[in-house]
Amino acid sequence: MNTTPNSGIDEIIANNYAKIKTIREQGIDPFPHRFSLTHKIDKACQTPAGESVIIAGRIVLMRVMGKATFAHLKDGTGKMQIYVKKDAVGEAAYELFKKQMHVGDFLGVEGKLFLTHTGELTVNAEKLTVLSKSVRPLPEKFHGLTDPEARYRERYLDLISNEEARTIFVRRSQVVAAIRGVLDADGYLEVETPVLCAQAGGASARPFITFHNAYKYELYMRIATELPLKKLIIGGFDGAYEIGRVFRNEGVDTRHNPEFTTLEAYKAYSDYNGMAALMERIFEKCSAIIGADTVEYNGMKVNLKPPFRRLSLPDEWLKKTGYDLHEILKGKSFNKENLKKLAAELHIEFGADTPPAKIFERIMDEKILSELEQPTFVMDYPTAITPLAKCKTGDESIVERFEFFAGKEEIANAYSELNDPEDQKSRLEEQLRQREEENNGEADILDKGFIEAMEYGMPPMGGIGVGIDRLTMLLAGKPSIREVILFPLLKPPTAG
Question: Which of 8, 30, 402, 429 qualifies as a FRET site for 460, CA 20 to 30 Å off?
Answer without folding.
Answer: 429
